[in-house]
Amino acid sequence: MSILSLLQQAQNGQGLANVASQFGIGTDKAAEIAEMLAPAISGAAKQKAASGGLDALLGNFQGEAQGALFEDASAAASSEGQAQGAAFLDSLLGGQEGRAALEGVAAEKSGLDFSMVQQILPALAAMAQGGMQKSLPDDSISSMLGGASSGGGGLLGMAAGLLGGGAKGGPDLSMLTNMLDDDGDGSVVDDLLGKFLK
Length: 198
Known about the structure:
Blueprint: H1 3-13, H2 15-23, H3 27-50, H4 54-59, H5 68-71, H6 73-77, H7 79-93, H8 96-110, H9 114-135, H10 138-149, H11 154-162, H12 174-180, H13 193-196
Helix pairs in contact: 1-2, 1-3, 1-9, 2-3, 2-9, 3-9, 7-8, 7-9, 8-9, 10-11
């Protein structure tokens, strides 16, 4: 299930509407932001994996308690939820400047005020992170991290598997790969930030 599908199916399909109501905007606007956010997360995550940061990437998805951000829109929209989502985006995008650039593009394309996007984008990121944590149990992540340090091609082999190269004997990255192949075409190479910035 892709990141966008996770967001669309959150809270029995009402997650985006619930987040929108928290900020007093239309569900269509929340959906529009989600449609831009999902490939941005996917692309940034794959770039991080390709540059040798797969262990840090997987670390973002540890801590199943964060699943509450996926299940409760008010938790994701809270100041704590927004802070969690902002930290998640910062870790993927190289800091606050990268997140600000993403927020600027999202504001321009959606027509929402920048100050609104600064709140709803991290909230949706927190919800996505929570959904990914629920889909990737901690024991699965531990297995992936273990594979990164013992055989199976190491981190480079894992990154190759994530990016479509495959790594025999390595950890099973299929769940993560499916999430990061945001357009569902079987390729995790073409969903980079360029897609978001079109």
